[in-house]
Amino acid sequence: MKHAPLILMALLAWPSTARAVVVISGDSNTSAPSGQPYFNNIGVVNGASGIYLGNGWVLSANHVAPTLPATATFGASTYATEAGTFHRVTNPLGSGLSTFTDIVLFRLGTDPGLPSLTIASSTPTVATDVMMIGNGRTQEASLTFWQRVVNPGLADDTWTPLAYPNALINAAGFKTTDTRTIRWGENNVATNGQTYSYGHGDVRSFTTTFNSGAKAQEAQGVAGDSGGGVFSTTDGGVTWTLSGMMVSVLLFENQPGGNGTAVLGNATAIADLSFYRSEILAVIPEPSGMLMSLVATCGLIVRRRR
């Protein structure tokens, strides 16, 4: 019997509508939770998502912002993008991966005054707590239930919606609407070290899985969350590091609504930014590196004056 496969799909940007991370609790989660200082670093880029890194620089997915100019909104303000700053990140030479990956950098013409982020220097281990923040589709208020029948061929599984309760129900999830908001949710790293290919280049990734009862604010990415940030913590949420960027979802065969529906058992594929960290920092140095450079320069000036 055919095992129920998961299908990988890019979290495509839809500029005419907006979307948000789906959370199993149904809570709004549209403002920063306690202890998370970087909620406002996630903005809207071309209708999908982007991450403000610091010093005017934004990180997003290539399938969200393949060229400049792009529209970028953080908080209540929309910022022009700076011509000539577009940079598409590459996979390391000798990695056996495609030359380009689905990650881009560009600079805003005006600094929005948000805090700078630290990019993780290592891949988060399995079971690490993460917080996912993105501008994906907003979920409907209640769960939808289906009877899902796995058939032996390709693309022929069937999904029949059913009213709860019903003994035939074997799948549940959230459909989404076209309302606009940025939302957060929580999860754990399920797998790491994968490479996914979905038409926008190879992406070294880790994943999360959408499970019932795992976390109170259990989250799943949906359409529009591409470019959204995934922050990891190893101390219960006291400190957070930018570990990833949402790029794709893994769906069941013939899943109703495609990547606009979050079904329990789905997964979110997240670009592992530690794998691309050296190139990102070559374009935009981390704040600590820039500060040390400034301190060293000031010290040199003082010594010369002596």
User: In total, how many beta strands?
Assistant: 20
Low-confidence stretches: 12-19, 288-306
Helix and strand sequence: EEEEEEEEEEEEEEEEEEEEHH
What is the domain total for the residues? Answer: 1
Major β-sheet annotation: 7 strands, antiparallel
The proportion of residues forming helix, as a percent range, comes to under 10%
At CATH level 2, the architecture is Beta Barrel
Q: Estimate what percentage of residues fall within beta strands.
A: 35-45%
Task: Tell the overall outline.
Answer: globular
Please give the count of helices: 2
Secondary structure: elements and pairs:
Blueprint: E1 6-10, E2 22-23, E3 42-45, E4 50-54, E5 57-60, E6 72-74, E7 77-79, E8 87-90, E9 100-107, E10 129-134, E11 144-149, E12 158-162, E13 171-174, E14 183-197, E15 202-209, E16 219-220, E17 229-233, E18 241-252, E19 262-263, E20 267-272, H1 273-283, H2 287-305
Antiparallel strand pairs: 1-18, 2-16, 3-4, 3-6, 4-5, 5-9, 6-7, 8-9, 10-14, 10-17, 11-12, 11-13, 13-19, 14-15, 15-20, 17-18, 18-20
